[in-house]
Records
---
Amino acid sequence: MKIIHIRYEDYRNLSAGEMSPDGGINVIFGKNAQGKTNLLEAMWLFTGGRSFRGSRDADLVARGRRRALLDLTFFSGEREQTARLAVEGGKRSAVLNGVPKRSAAGLVGVFCAVMFSPEHLALVRDGPVFRRNFMDTALCQIRPGYAVLLARYRHTLVQRNALLKDIPRHSELLGTLSVWDEKLARYGREIVKSREEYLTWISGPVRGIYAGICENREQIGLKYQKSAENLNEALLKNRAADIAAGHTGAGPHRDDLLIEIDGLSARAFGSQGQKRSAVLALKLAEAEVLFSRTGERPVVLLDDVMSELDAGRQDYLLNHLENCQVFITCCEADAVRRLRGGARFEMEAGVLRAR
Ligand SMILES: Nc1ncnc2c1ncn2[C@@H]1O[C@H](COP(=O)(O)OP(=O)(O)OP(=O)(O)O)[C@@H](O)[C@H]1O
Ligand SMILES: [Mg+2]
């Protein structure tokens, strides 16, 4: 997977411009708030996923403008392809190789990328939602059907929760709960199965990469943690509690991924350095699994992570990504210590220049 060309118009603070990146490493440097992350975010949107900043679609359009437009030419599946994304009226639309898609989600699995920013430390440090999102985002890119499954599960969960809230006032509704339980359990089981399968794919690479980063001094391990062993049974057993709470207490929306270093939870016991290494290992392994499962090396977007890594980890990262196209943003032009080849760009007030 390689970006050949990207053009943008009225995307956040990027009013109009284009970029023809190198097939290897691209460094985009510039002062704060110039538009570096916005450019990576624009690339990321072609994965069909949502903004990694959790922004609403309407926020992507430059203030005071009507429509944001992004055009991408990329090499994938051994051919050159084009994609266009437009954001207008609070909605995204997509065209792939000249053919309009039903929604931007129609791009899922076509263009793939892995994003890594300092916020990803949350993956090890913070609540389970970040680890669930990690598994789900990766799975969506490998298996577009997974995105559909997730949407069905979420929809069913919303319906069941609404019903739980209504039951105390309308006891006659209790009888309809089992219909939603059955659906939720069915979708839920499939999600758990997929996530567990993903962990079997990624565990080996994560272990190998982590061992490489810490020179075999420590071992990392991943375990899927279910909120319920048997979802059908749990939904039935917890009914009274669910009705009292007005939401569903068990299911894949409550599961977690336990990350252990030498047998201890990295979240609870890991040092800063161990957490950073664990996130780096997870992200690099994510790229490796995408390649082994789809045959395409994802484009790697590294937002602001270089200055947080010491020389050893920087080297490890860049050596590991040797065959990928990489976009690195940073403030200082020389933040990437040992850059061989590649291209440099400077971002200033939304204008990109090759340097
Ligand atoms: N919809 C929008 N319209 C216009 N400007 C926007 C919009 N959304 C964000 N911006 C502006 O984009 C700028 C931030 O850009 P970005 O986050 O890409 O900066 P950056 O170069 O990555 O900076 P840093 O080095 O601090 O991470 C801010 O000035 C912000 O106000
Ligand atoms: Mg930034």
---
Amino acid sequence: MSKRQVTSNETGYFWQKKAVPTRAEGLERLSSFAVTGLKSYSDQRNYDYGPSDRSNISLLSPWVRHRLISEQEIIEKLLNIHSHRDAEKYIQQVVWRTYFKGWLEQHPSVWDSYQKGIWSGLNEVSHDKNKTRLYEKAITGQTGIDCFDSWTVDLMEHSYLHNHARLWFASIWVFTLKLPWELGANFFMRHLLDGDPASNTLSWRWVSGLHTKGKNYLATSSNIKKFTLGRFKMDALLDEVASPLNELTEHPFQSLTSLENLPNDDFLLLVTKEDCNSVDLAKDLPVSALGLMLSEKSEVFENSPAVFEFSHGAVVDGVERISSAGEVLICEDWLEPLIDLARSNNVTNIVTAYTPIGPVNSKLQSIKPLLKNAGIELSFSRKQYDQTFWPHATKGFFAFKKSTNNLIKELAVN
Ligand SMILES: Cc1cc2nc3c(=O)[nH]c(=O)nc-3n(C[C@H](O)[C@H](O)[C@H](O)COP(=O)(O)OP(=O)(O)OC[C@H]3O[C@@H](n4cnc5c(N)ncnc54)[C@H](O)[C@@H]3O)c2cc1C
């Protein structure tokens, strides 16, 4: 397959434009991709042409991850313009996100064991001089593996890696460098604009052979050469035959948590980076809105400034679109500002978009009983799309795809 011709206009639009964390920008990018980008997506999407040419993919992930735009909106938009057949490949990618989200919600112990694995991985690395050195080289782009080092630099400079590069990178990290997968996943989370607890953790587990048990993803020199159009010196030996990782821990299925009814009374709206488009969460408008962000240091090592800025901007956009008087605070203590604002507005209800498993959810679960003690009810509102699709994410992706195929077709608006 040869590289298609890209006009400078297309390239400029998709990549050289700054990643502005607003819903308006996400919608504009979605429209442009739907009209001009989708046509060649299924043939071209696996090619990684490097940071100067991202015209063959949508680059929508930072906006979807913050839910400035939703999976449902993307699917509806594409099916309004294209046939299901033409849009199928792209929709299938979008649905991976839905699948991973739903799967992690129903196997929450995976998140806990990943968190513990970061600390045990650090412990392992710090007790072995060779591993300490290798880990340092891996996160600074100095392993001597040309492609891997180049992706490390790209990730730190652009806060983004192509999907294929993420697969190769994770595979080399785990099977060639033999570093703990949890440290690699954490490195991604700190630097990706789209860093997402479910997509990232489960993709790393998938590459390692822990998600689909016994089946790992092995990066090969020939595959990298082909899909990067020979951009790298492929002189380092990759482990192309390694066995999958295994783990002793079982991760039991747990049904999705059922949610309380939303309040009929006045309420305060809380916006977090998990969902920055909360306009239609409840039937009525909130009396006021507050955005809360954890500081960049609080999420198991520091997030890069670019990642933090994007998330912060997304929360600001989410609040501003609801209430011009709303504010966004960056703090570790979320209890006091919520109680203060609820009391000053004379309300006893706070509503927020459902927060899937991850640091924000942990924070809210820890303060929910304390708010209750203060006479304030915190309620979560789950989007209908999640409510419908997530329960199907119990086994592998292909079973999920099969059981949701008709649901997706139904999203086409007449
Ligand atoms: C090791 C590894 C880690 C990853 N970590 C993340 C992460 O933290 N956050 C994240 O959003 N994606 C993650 N991905 C998935 C995927 O690489 C990115 O979503 C994609 O590269 C984003 O670029 P794009 O929007 O141009 O993608 P496109 O190719 O244009 O795909 C369209 C959309 O489909 C969704 N998508 C595609 N593939 C996946 C996938 N495997 N999982 C979930 N959604 C997908 C994204 O929303 C994306 O915007 C990871 C993949 C791997 C292999």
